[in-house]
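Bit of a strange request maybe. I'm writing a small parser for structure token strings and I need a real example to test against, not something I typed by hand. Could someone generate the tokens for this chain?
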Amino acid sequence: MISVTSVQLSAWLALFMFPFVRILALVASAPILGNKQIPARVKIGLAMLLTFVIAPTLPAIPEVELSSAPGVLMLLQQLLAGLAMGFALRIIFIAIEMCGELIGMQMGLGFASFFDPQNASFTPVIAQFLGIFAALAFLGMDGHLYMLAALADSFQSFPISAAAPHASAWHTLTVWGGSIFADSLQLSMPVIGALLITNLALAILTRTAPQLNIFAVGFPITLTVGFIALALALSYFAPLLDNITHAGMDTALRVMHQSAQP
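Reply from user aminoacidic:
Good idea to test on real output. This should exercise your parser:
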């Protein structure tokens, strides 16, 4: 007859719960997988499946009771680690949506917005278009597979232990969050430059022909030039997205590596 003691059951549960919390936090906060349109049961099921695959490959986990104070702190530590990785990757899509907002305002489409159920707010139509395009490009370049590979590597860089994360990891994450402005400006610069030249030409045209109704002529011209510039810039959009995605993956792994520093 096979008998299982409470100590063995607690050890088996800890072997599953500690990585499960980190994986579930990443799945809930990461781009694509963390979309609110995906049911919570699917996210939990995916996190459980990944845990069953990754858990046997993990280093030795300290024998800590889950209901004890050190166990709760370790669970909180794994939750923060997963959220930090998810945040580092979500910054990529926030930069792209911000790029769409900048382009939309320059084109005069700042008022054209739709309700975004994921963010529970109104998002400009250009930002939504670029967000969908970036999501498809992210899946096309196997970004979700790289994300899962980075998740598996994070358990080697920052193993499950009772040690608190180092402060330098949070500084790295903060610096990466500040790069959203540089990335969004870099992505939107071609279209903004074309629209700036268009607005300067319209300003000169207004000075030379004051009787011209600039509001009736300038808005269609700005929209046309903006859409043409956006269509031409999309061919260069994927390489920049690929560079930003790899930079986000490297930042997430660097945060995990710095968290394990003494």
